[in-house]
Amino acid sequence: MKDEFVSRHTTDISRYRIECAKEMMGKVLDVGGGLGVYLPYFGSRDVTIIDIDEEAIKRLNCDKKLVADACHMPFADNTFDSVWACGVCMYMDIYEFITEAKRVTKEGGRIIITVPNPNTPWSRFIKLLGMKIWTDNLKDGGYQLYSIDELKQFGELTGEVRFLPDFIDKRIRHFSKVWHTMMLKIVV
Fold first, then answer.
1. Which domains does the chain have, with CATH numbers?
2. Separation CA 5–CA 13 (nearest Å)
3. Is the confidence at residue 82, as pLDDT, over 80?
4. How far is 177 from 119, CA to CA, in rounded Å?
5. What is the C-alpha separation between 86 and 116, in angstroms, rounded?
6. Up-side HSE of residue 25: CA atoms within 13 Å toward CB?
7. How far apart are CA 156 and CA 151, in angstroms?
8. Which pLDDT score is estimated for 1?
9. What pTM was estimated for this model as a whole?
10. φ, ψ (nearest 5 deg) of residue 182
11. Which bin fits 141, alpha (ψ -120 to 50), beta or left (φ > 0)?
12. I need a surface site. Which of 20, 63, 127, 154 has the fewest CB within 10 A?
């Protein structure tokens, strides 16, 4: 059985997420990086990871790491070329986070955020089959779900259905009604 701590601090790695992680160039900030599962996939080796969980940071095998709040980051303005936030924005106010991420990102830099799609037909289908969905694993319910319309105001929005074959997933990335996960790309 998988260690509960490890389960809480890792995320699903999909082909599309790896593709997007490769876009993270220059000086990269991985927000809520947990145990660093995306480190091998970033298009840069100059990566700083922050997480609110002290134990995750202690376990992380990365030189540049620190315990920090994503909405109040201890970095100067225009510090990073790229900011990656995979699967963490549902635990915070995304508006506050995006403001803070833009502050620490250089002009022309990229911010990529992944969040679950609360209105996906896949979750309803999976529940009908008696299987668990991601929200079933959250004991305290302390998370915020964001709609497609809320996120589109910030930048380009695409998505994925991570368990479908690649050739199907690529064809449906721009059909928001079927996304399992939403991927928000912001150019600062």
1. 4-187 (3.40.50.150)
2. 17
3. yes
4. 8
5. 10
6. 5
7. 9
8. 42
9. 0.86
10. -100, 140
11. left
12. 63
